[in-house]
Amino acid sequence: MAFRVTQFQTDQQFLFQHRIAREEESRILERLSTLKRVNRASDDPNNYGRISDSKNQLSETSAYREVMQATMERFTQTETALSGIRNAIDDARELVVGGVSITNTDLERETVADQIAQLRLTIINRLNTTHEGEYIFSGTLTNVQPFQDPVTGNYSGNAELLQIRTSATDNLTTNWTGDAIAYGPGGQGSADDILDALADLETAFRNNDLVTINAELPRLEPIDERINQLISQVGTRTTRLIAEDNHYEQFEIGLQAVLAELEDADLAEEALNLEQSRNTIDAQLRTQGSVSRQSLLDFLS
After folding, report:
1. pLDDT score at 74
2. CB 182 within 8 A of CB 192
């Protein structure tokens, strides 16, 4: 028994096929505009999970690198400040050695005292160094000036350390506190105290007290060595961050290559697909137009 295909059925079939062709054209245009072969899970269910995981890893890596690069800038400021402190100590040692000569007059020793006082103030200014509006030697109290009174040399920050995450399991300490730098392991007023040593030397020179001057001078060498060790620590941590950053950079390059392979569109291929899609649509429209005219002639006849 033969069944006749009605005009209504023909039109419905045309509309169904035409809708599919238009949807495919739309997907091709989207791939061309986004330059991505995969824009949603339905575009490639098998690889969409890998793409999402790779993007998450890329975002996490980028966050690590951003924090590490900001820390390296902070370390540059830290090293500059510590180097300034070391240079001030070296200058003070030279002044003291030259100032203890018995041929120096009272006026010359007063001048040395003034210069030592200025070097002490220079060290305090270095200890109050800021980076991007934050005091770098105040512990976690980064909005508090660590050394507010140059006369007493008292510390107003805290002894807390700051850390960053360099990976899912590793941390790195990123600061040195002002009290540890200025006072050393012995604490304020001890033989390790930079500010105390310079204050004593200043007073001794003003009083023309050669005994105290000769007693205080040996304090400066171990303090100088301690500051050099701190500078070395900054360098070591900076080297570690550079290595970590280089590692993450290579990891990012690898991830981006994987993503490009998984989701990037082939422009030449998509341009050909678009041409073929539009040829298909044009053919459908011509065929439907021809069928519709033939049906009208059949009806009229």
Report:
1. 97
2. no
CB 94 within 8 A of CB 37: no
User: CA-CA distances (angstroms) from residue 68 to 87, 135, 245?
Assistant: 28, 18, 7
Closest by alpha carbon to 73, among 177, 180, 174? 174
pLDDT at 295 over 60: no
Q: Are strands 130-131 and 163-165 parallel, antiparallel or unpaired?
A: unpaired
Q: Is 295 within 8 Å of 9 (Cβ atoms)?
A: no
pLDDT score at 114? 96
Instruction: Give the tokens for residue 11.
Output: 């039109």
b/e per residue 64-85 (b: at least 16 CB within 10 A) = bbebbeebeebbeebbebbebb
CB 177 within 8 A of CB 138: yes
The pLDDT confidence band at residue 129, using thresholds 50, 70 and 90, is very high
Joined tokens for residue 297: 């002639």
